[in-house]
Amino acid sequence: MPDRPLSILFVSSEVYPFAKTGGLADVSHALPIALRELGHDVRVMLPKYGNVSERRNRIHEINRLKEVPIAVGEHVEPATIKSSSMQNPRTKVQAYVTTNYTYFDSKKGLYADPVTGEPYNNDERFIFFDRSVVTTCLLLGWFPDIIHCNAWQAGLIGAYIRTMHAKEFARTRLVFTIHNAADQGIFPAASLAKTGLPKEVYPRIAHAKQLNFTKAGLEFADAITTVSPTYAKEIVKDKIISGGLHTVFRNYHIEGILNGIDTYHWNPKSDPFIRHHFDSETWKDGKAQNKKALRDRLRLPHDEKVPILATIGRLSDAKGTPLLIEVLPELLHDAVQVVVLGEGDPSLAKTLEKLAAKHPKKLAVFMGFDDELAHLIEAGADMYLMPSLYEPCGLNQMYSMAYGTVPIVRATGGLIDTVSEFNPESRCGTGFVFRDYTADDFLSAIKRALALYKKTTYWAALVQNCMSQDFSWANSARQYHALYYRILSA
What letter would DSSP give residue 65? Predict the structure, then answer.
């Protein structure tokens, strides 16, 4: 007898195209769509931040979900739950959007003030959001088979449905996915009372005498996952990678399921953000044309023999930005051009901009997030730099391979699970890998890549290897599909 379709509520603090700071938004867009294609009734829920356009995202009201009172401690704020959708050419997924002026609509950043960098009152904001998720289900009379909670921001949902609303959600099973173990949602002990949960629950949602959203997510989940098999092993061993929670993670079974990529939005054959489309047979011409378009966009001089090395993402210690800065002075002595697109640590950004001012013909730095430029970079660059201190999964190395852009990565987390060192003799492998978090080791990997780039036959074999990889969500969605049925039948 075939598995019956499931009802699934997928909860995330950011979902593309509504709101995005990183890979969580891409996952929260693509995985629900992949699950919907497997036949499940999937709905997504997220907050509406002040920089999210209701008109552009076609967000509209639901009559019975207006001005719903939500308590945060002794304070009550109204939540209006609105509706939208996200889709690809084959399917559509409904989205519920929590709106509230005080906690979300009045703020332009997702988690912190974009000008000062000061974090918002995120304990109250995500207590409010998590309670709005539970309340939405109660008001709709919809108690899904699975509630899939993503990252710390959704960590309290399990506590609410297993204590205050245990009867209504008796048949619902909860999955909690750790996207970044070091980002846990830690707040002062005084925040425990703001949750409105019974006091006897406090020890289960606290760690080191502080409210810890991630600890809460672990405690009440029927299954816990993280975003790559290697990362699942790392977070129970490494104090830094786990954000000091490694001894707690050891108490739970954590399954690593590798993220996929959205092959509708990230496909060089049909990408709407690039003019010159290509596939594994036409990549040379396509890459050359996109490289010219990228240089024109960033005002870099043209030289067909000079490779472009690129990186996109947050500027932070975790992403290896200090390592990139350390190697750039020597690297820029070579016949290369380097492109950086990102935002994050202001001091790292300032250093990169100073280097770009010194080397305007070799280094282009663009601060901020620009989706169109990100796609053009992947299509036009020859190599992608990912020197992460740690990397739960990583998506850009997979985007890069899909576009024939060779990844140069550090051996950590999901990077180990997706990239292997190219062997010229066997012509196997998909990139260049270094192990030690040092400038010397990183630069050595880059030099190996630059040397191979000059050997066109080998380089063509490497690009073909990259573009032949299947990183679609189909396999990962099937693994989640199996996990859901397993916990429902337990």
Answer: G
d(CA 174, CA 179): 16
> If you compute the radius of gyration of the chain from its CA atoms, what whole number of angstroms results?
23
Region(s) of the chain under CATH 3.40.50.2000: 7-260+473-489, 283-467
**For residues 182 and 241, is the Cβ–Cβ distance under 8 A?**
yes
- 132 close to 81: Cβ distance less than 8 angstroms: yes
Half-sphere exposure of 293 (CA within 13 A, CB side): 20
- CB atoms near residue 80 (< 10 Å): 18
Third-level CATH fold of 7-260+473-489: Rossmann fold (3.40.50)
The tokens of 172 are what?
A: 């619902």
In contact, 29 and 264? CB cutoff 8 Å: no
Q: Which two tokens stand for residue 361?
A: 């013909």
The confidence band for 1, taking pLDDT boundaries of 50, 70 and 90, is very low
Q: What is the mean pLDDT of the chain?
A: 96
**CA max distance for the chain:** 68
> 387 preceded by cis ω (within 30°)?
no
Taking the C-alpha atoms of residue 215 and residue 184, their distance in angstroms, rounded to an integer, is 8
Mean pLDDT of 58-68: 94
pLDDT of residue 21: 86
Determine the Cα–Cα distance for residues 306 and 421; give it in Å rounded to an integer.
Answer: 22
Q: How is residue 54 written in tokens?
A: 């209701």
373 phi, psi to nearest 5 deg: -65, -35
Dihedral (C-alpha) 100, 103, 107, 109: value to the nearest 10 degrees?
A: -110
Instruction: Tell me whether residue 299 is exposed, middle or buried, using C-beta atoms within 10 angstroms of its C-beta: 0 to 12, 13 to 18, 19 or more.
Output: exposed
The CA distances from residue 33 to 10, 94, 95, 228, in Å, are 11, 10, 11, 20
Mean per-residue pLDDT, 4-17: 96
Give Cα 416 distance to the centre of its chain. 17
- CATH fold for domain 283-467: Rossmann fold (3.40.50)
Band of the pLDDT at 368, cuts 50, 70, 90?
A: confident
| CA–CA distance, 194 with 213 (Å, rounded to integer) | 13
CA distance 145 to 439: 49
pLDDT single digits (tens) 249-306: 999 999 999 999 988 889 999 999 999 999 999 999 999 999 999 999 999 999 989 9
CA 207 vs CA 9, 175, 184, 306: distances in Å: 27, 20, 10, 52
